[in-house]
Every structure is written in C-alpha cells, then in structure tokens.
Amino acid sequence: MVDCPRAQAFFARHTAESPETLQQSEATLAVRIRDWATRIKAAKAPAVLLGDVDVRSAQAAMAVADAINARVILDQSEQATRIQRTLARQGQVTCTFGELRSRADLVVMIGDDWADAAPRLKERFLPVDGQFLSQPREIIIVEPQSVNDLTQVFAAVRQALRQSDATLSIQTLAPTDQAIASQLIAACRTHATSAWLWRDAALGETPELPLQELLRLVEALNMEGRSFSLRMTDRPGLVTATDVCVWQTGLAPPLQFTSRGPEALEQYALTDFDLVIAVSPLGTLHHIAPDFVSSDRHLCVVPAACHGEYDQAIYVAVPGLHHPAHLQRGDGAMMQRIVGAASQSLPSASDVLTQLLKSLGR
Amino acid sequence: MLLRFTGGMLYDPTQSDEGVKRDLWVRDGRIVAPNPQSIADETIDLSGKVVMAGAIDLHTHIGGGKLAIARTLLPERWERAAIKHAAELRAGLGGYAPSSFETGYQYARLGYTACFEPAMLAAGARQTHFEMSDIPIIDHGAYVILGNEPALLAALQRNASRQEIADYVAWMIRNTGAMAVKVVNPGGIDAFKFGARTLDVDQSHPHFGVTPRDIVRSLTQALCDLQVPHPLHVHCSNLGIPGNWESTLATVKAAEGRPIHLTHVQFHSYGTEGPRKFSSQAAAIAELVNQSTNVTIDIGQIIFGQTVTVSADVMHQFGARKHAKPNKWVCSTIENQAGCGVVPFKYRDANYVHALQWAIGLELLLLVKDPWRVFLTTDHPNGGPFTSYPHLIRLLMDRTFREDQLRRIHPEAAEISNLKGITREYSLKEIAILTRAAPARILGLSDHGHLRPGAIADLVVYRPDQDRERMFAEPSAVYRRGVEVVRDGAILATPAGQLHCVRPATESREIPAIVRELAAQNGVRPATMMVSTDELQEINSAQVIEHPCRSPSQ
C-alpha cells in the first residue's frame, strides 16, 4: 500500500509496524496502547518528541509528558521562524513600521505573494501614490517559491559584501538564484539603512525559511556600519504546538526547543532517552526519527495532523490529513501516499494520547 | 444532592448582608431557596467563618500571544519559579507570569472563581480561547480589542453610518467569542505605525484624520445600540505620560454620557506639578467618577517588585523600552489590527515615580465613594501579579498598615501624595462589593457575585483575622458550583472553567463591509477570522455561557 521506500524503511526500522497496522481496529489500537503504557512505566528517561501538531494533540501530548515526567522536545520547523519570540531568543529586536517608514531607504520583502496576502502592508512601502513615504526607497521582493536555495542566496550576499568581486560568491548558485542575489548585493552596497520584512505565512504556503542565515546576514551588515533591521509579520490566527507548550509550561523545563534537522536534534541528545513518544505528522517522522533513535530503544509513534490552515477549515485534528499546500513541500509525494491510505481510519492523536493517559492510570 | 452550608457569616452586598448568619442551601451547583421540609444530604459547618461569593477579576491578562512572548522573552524565570507536578496537579511556572495551569491554581487558592482577559486580538481569539481553556477551575472570558484597525478607521473617516459601525462591532464580538469590547490607545496604535509617537484625544490620526474622540464616541454608541452589558473598556490615550489626567477627562467626555469603563486608571491619573513635574491627579479623577454615574474604573495598582508589562499599546511600550529591566524587550506591530509590546519592569519603592504610582492607585481606591464603580486590579501582570490582592486588601482595610507602608516609600512621593490624609478604611462588605458584586454587575453576570437563590454556588470561606492580608490570602475553603476545590491552600479538584461570552444580535445576516475590508487587508477570508460557536464549545470542554445583551441599567 505504501510505496515510499523511506517511509517503509522508517516503519520497518523503528516500529516493526507498517502504516497498515496503524489503521487496524480499535481493539488492536487498545492492545498497542497497553503495550506502550507498559513500556512507558518501565522507562527511566522518557521523552516526548512533539512536532507540528494540532492544538488538541499538543495538549494531550503535554498531559502525557507531565504524567510521566518526560522531557518535551519541540520539533518546531516552521515555528522556529515565527516572529518576535524567535528574535527574542536570538537577542534581536524587531523594528516598527513607523521606523521603517521614516528611516529605511531599502525594503526587502521576503515571502510569497505580498500583494495578495498583505496588500495593506505592501501599500505602505510601495510608492503607489507616495502618501505614506517620507523618502524614496527601493523595494526588493524575494519570493522563496521561486528561489532554489534561499540559504545559499543569503550566504552569498553576506560573502559578497566582504569582497570586491560579487561574482565570486554567486557563481556557485543556481542560475535562477544569481539574479536575485545580484540584486540584493547591489542594493545592500547602495543603501545604508534597510529593513528586511519577512512574511511568515501559514504552514504549508511557504518553504522553510533560513532564519539563522538571514540573522547572520543582517548582523554582518550592521557590523559594517549600516543600519539594518528585521521585521517579521505573520498570518494572524495560527495557533501552534509551540504556543501550547509555552503557555502550559511558561517555558520551564521539561520543555526544550529545537528545529527540524539532524544537527538540531542531536544537540538535545535524544539518544539519552530510553523511550521516545513521537507525536508528529507522518511526513516529519521519517525525516527526524530514523536518524536519532537507535533500534534498541523504544519508540511510540502517534501520527498526528499538523496544526492546519483555517482557510480550509482543517483545524482540529483530522487524522493523518494534511493541508494540500503542505503536500507541495519536498516530502509531499510520500505524505500524500501515506495519507491517502490511512487518513480515513486513524484515530486522532489526541484520542490516542488520552487513552494512553488512562492506561497509565492518570 | 442537597447541601447545607450552616453557621457561616454571610457577606452579600446585594442583600445588604453583612455578617448575617444564615444557612445556604445548594443543589446541582446553585444556591436554592431554603425549604423547611428539606433534608440535606450533607451539612457543612462553617461556624465562625466569613462566607462570600467567589471573587471576580474583571481585568487580568491570562491569555493570548502577548503572554507567550513574555514567557519566551524571560526564560530565566523558571530557575526561581518552576513548579513540579503533584498528584492531580500539572507542572508549570509561578511568579509574575504564571503558566496556564498555575494561573488557575493560584487564583482558586485566593478565592477567585472568574477572571476576564481584557485584551484579545481578533486575530488571536482562537489562541486566547485555547489558552484560557487550559486554565482550570476558574470561569473566564475575554474582551476583543477594537479601535485601531485600518478598516474601522477608514470607515470612520468616510463617516460610515451608526448602523454600519454597530454591525461591525457585533460581528467582531460574536465571531471572536468575546464578552466585551476594549479599545487600547484609540487610534494611537495605528498612528504609531505611521511614525506618530503620541496621539491625544483631539489629535488627528496622521493618515485617516480621525481622532481618538471619534473612535470612543463611535464605539460607545455601538455598544449602547447593541445593548452589550459591559461598557466600552477603555485604555485611554497617553498612558503613563505626566499630565495625562486631562486626556482621561477628555475621554470620558467623548462618551457623551454613555457608559464607559476606564481601565488601569492609575496609569492615567498623572499631573505635572511639583519639582519633578510628575504628580498625582487622583483626586480629580476620583471626583470625575463621583460626579459621573456613567463612569466605572479599575485601578491597575502597582506592586513593588519585578514584573513584566504586556500591552497592545505599542506606542507606549516603545517609549517604555528604555526602562526595561532586565534590558530586553519586544515591540511589534500587528498588521491591520493592533500591536504588542512586552517590557520587563521592576517597580521600586525608593524610586519617586514608582512610589507615587503606588500612592495614586490607593488614592483612587479610597477617594471614589461608590464601591460599585471601582474595581480592584493590578492589571496583572502590568502593575504586579494578581497574587498581591490580599496585600492590597489589607492596605485598603487597615489604615495603620497603610500609613506604615507609606513611610517606607520615597519621601518626596509620600509628601506630595494625598494618601497620608485619607482616613477611610474599607469594610468587609465593601470588599465584597469591590471584588464580587460590582464586577458581576458590570459584566452582566447575573448569577455570579452574590448569594441569593439562583446564584451559582461559588463560595469562599475565610477565617476572620485582623491581619486581612493573611485572611484573604488563605481561605479555609473554596467551593466551585458547590464542590470543594480548595481546602487550606490545597487544590482538591480541578474542574474546567466555563467560558462566558455575549452574542449581540444584528438585523443583517450579511458580513459587514468593514469586516470584508479587514479580511482583505489581512489576506484571508472573513471565515478565517471566525471562531464559531461549535469551535468554542469544542475548545472549552466545559459549557459555553452566552449572556443576553441588555443595557447595564437593567
């Protein structure tokens, strides 16, 4: 049923189950949950690995973690790029629109489709009739969807600003990315004061954006005597698993943050734990878990829906179902096949975790 | 099950009960009329104890994105305030920005059974409701912030009809699950995005041309038309600026006699007299309240110590960033709606300004004659944490203690303050008004805040103690809907709180034009901004209570 080699390998290596078994009867699920409860009670160092799940699943996962004194490791991915809280952790502050309006002579807008998504914001900066603008400015719009590798573009810009010949830094870029890199380099050399606006769109609409590389770029620009500011704006109303964890714990342990990827998870030493309860969309599990959970450790996999997209009315957990836009991502094809096979019969992650909590005697 | 609470000394201002010994009968979570034929299934002896209805905090920041930012900004707090989980209790964080579960536990331990988040952005309504649903025991609700949306300001600029504004306000209240409407620095938040750093009541917005007066007038009018119980909840212009008392007076006049609630008014009662050009105008504001029956206020009392300030008033917070302690802050404008500023702050009694702020709050509480129109708040966590309420109550009830505290603050502040000449001491009955009966009435919670038949059986039992701080900090028992949830500080049960909201009716079933414009500016469909009744029910595992809209006088 599932013809994705990576997904098959994942389930074969770490759960000894195939996706098909996840959609068996409730009785089978109950048996599995009892088995999980037994393993969890025996665990000395459990962890909950929490991905981009819906609010209810996050709440249920946190309840399980609380009950068993587990460390919670947030696999944030897109959430790591969310506005002020990320910048605060980085020791950065955001600029305001008022400041941008009166100071910035260069505005770099990053994020797809500003005109449709935030016409009001764009109106403030594009010289439609000049009424909002206190001075002439250059606007550069970077659409990540049309850029092959934004990380490399930012890195190239940073490198180019420290050398005289920009072509050296951009020649390794994909041909399609060289144009935008050249434009950014020229603008950064021309202007002393700029603002970088980042539209952190709803999950699934925008590829993962390299915040760290952008921060490095901006810091490098400021070190050279320019005045560059970061401003992020996001689609209002998105509630993430991160939000749930922050309001429930107040950011106290056992909560830890990470961002998606092998290096990030490794630094939190997932291998220190003898049992991991992974609550995450299927599409992320194949990406993170196989590389960090050795085969002699227990892994309970609770597939969950992502936190969703309101426009499509997918908000509360729809088992295994992901927003179509999410499927456009790199792992979309694989996810689509799994979801297509499993979405109708999976219980919701919050239900599974609630049952698990009961089995633990809580 | 029929419960009989016997022997307690009841304080119910709605019945003029002041220490009256009378049995309370409770069935199915509500107080019922006594019946001579009734036989109680259980009798609870409260002899020698003071009994009041559950307390209500009508202005406390307990949910929404601003708190998440504050918690994330200050991760070092956990080193001092982390709380491990216990049997039936969740782990979390205490201190001045407690986590959701801890918020519920701490409020319940103080005898509070209902709390209201006063600053819910429409864009953040879903998150606010989710977060509040994670606060156990206490009922909750939220006020939606309006008055800085470009769509609304544009409508006011083109002289949109009264009906159009009312339709918009009704839609926003209904579709965010709100209990009331709050306006923060009317027009000022949006003006800030255009480079303005102040916006007084009669000053025009740099782009839309409308004034804060226009906004307050329109919103108070709309809420009257819609018969929303709670008046417009106003965070006035020029918060924290010396001389802002005149802005506060002008804001009241902008309501043109319609009901208006001035929030954390301590921060809006400053004059410019004296060598430091910072003085108290509490007496003038109190006199305004005494003279104007359409005006209610809550205080926003400050408490000395570390806290974190969170506000949609990014204009003010941007100015306050220079005083951040520790030195980090977040200011953010939220496109098409409002803003958010998070600035950690430490109030010090040796600081002249802070000391005078402390005195001004107390002056207001003591100079407003009618306890039905003034409410005890710290604007948690902005003035200080809500856990300081017992201390504040002692300051109000114990003149000797108050004067002792006055002697400890900055001497010039103590000298310039009117506090030293005020002899008033609150009675227990007045405290019951201040913290129970009055907030219930101003919010339209007809079955809260009193002990008459029909009321919900939220009861707080205190041991009489001349040390009022100790008395109110340690209730001997707290009952929610007749079930004991706290005994001697220990949490016994953690039922889910109920969500309170209002659903004003409108004639039109169409989506108002201002809503459509707002949605277009946000790049979403109007439906995206809605939190439907079904969703509210799902978010809140307990019942959602929809209160009827009617005028406050009713």
Structure in words:
The complex is a heterodimer of chains A (362) and B (554). With 362 residues, chain A is of the alpha/beta class. Chain A contains 17 helices and 9 strands. Chain A has a 5-stranded parallel sheet with strand order 7-2-1-8-9, sandwiched between helices. Chain B is of the alpha/beta class and 554 residues long. Chain B has 20 helices and 28 strands. In chain B, a hairpin with a 2-residue loop joins strand 25 and strand 26. The chains are: A alpha/beta (362), B alpha/beta (554). Chains A and B meet through helix 4, helix 5, helix 6, helix 8 and helix 13 of A and helix 1, strand 9, strand 10, helix 3 and helix 4 of B.
Give a brief outline of the structure.
Helices cover 44% and strands 14% of the residues of chain A.
Number of strands of chain A: 9
Quaternary status: heterodimer
Global geometry of chain B = globular
Global Rg of chain B: 22 Å
Walk across the major sheet of chain A and give the strand order: 7-2-1-8-9
Instruction: Tell me the fraction of residues in β-strands of chain B, as a range.
Output: 15-25%
Helical percent range of chain A?
40-55%
Question: Average pLDDT value of chain B?
Answer: 94
- State the secondary-structure class of chain B: alpha/beta
Could you name the ranges of chain B where pLDDT drops below 50 across 5 or more consecutive residues? Answer: none
Can you give the helix content of chain B as a percent range?
A: 25-40%
Uncertain ranges of chain A: 1-25, 77-81, 201-206, 286-295, 307-345
Molecular shape of chain A: elongated
Q: Give the number of helices of chain B.
A: 20
Distance between the termini of chain A: 36 Å
Q: Name the average pLDDT of chain A.
A: 66
Radius of gyration of chain A: 22 Å
Biggest β-sheet strands, sense, barrel of chain B: 8 strands, parallel
